[in-house]
């Protein structure tokens, strides 16, 4: 199987315009965070920073499978550096109205467990983000397994959030079966039937 970067969805100014039925995850998450109607922090300003691009994968007959998001770690590191620079500049400008910084990392990938080897690069970057005053919120993951097996959920920096479901009868497990869990999950929050854009 081959992978192709779909460059038609990227523009010079870094804006991502996904095709039909694709790319709605970021919109949903951002509106759950700061949407005018359903957001939990309606007064927050969302500053979009994109680090993933849709990959179109083809099978051996050339048929297109469902696209998935991927991106190089170097872009993640550049994004974190840009966030710190942008937040520092906004915080210094007293007329900007921006007083805090919360980063939502609502994605993840497989993790080798070695935060001192190759993963020391993003670990150092996340430490710098926290040192600059930003709170890092990370998805625990949606594999129904250990959050320690995905990154950035396994990072020593930030807060990893797993998902709980609707109230169930006494004694039932509120953890959703697809939510990652374990010692790398710091907190749990509702993750079912979330109203958003």
Automatic annotation (TrEMBL):
Recorded superkingdom: Eukaryota
Keyword Hydrolase: yes
Coiled-coil ranges from the UniProt annotation: none
Renumbered residue ranges of the record's region Disordered: 1-27
Signal peptide range in chain numbering: none
Gene Ontology cellular component annotations, sorted alphabetically: extracellular space
GO biological process: proteolysis
UniProt keyword list: Hydrolase, Protease, Serine protease
Gene Ontology MF terms in the entry: serine-type endopeptidase activity
Family, as annotated: Belongs to the peptidase S8 family.
Protein name (record): Peptidase S8/S53 domain-containing protein
Species annotation: Emiliania huxleyi (Coccolithophore)
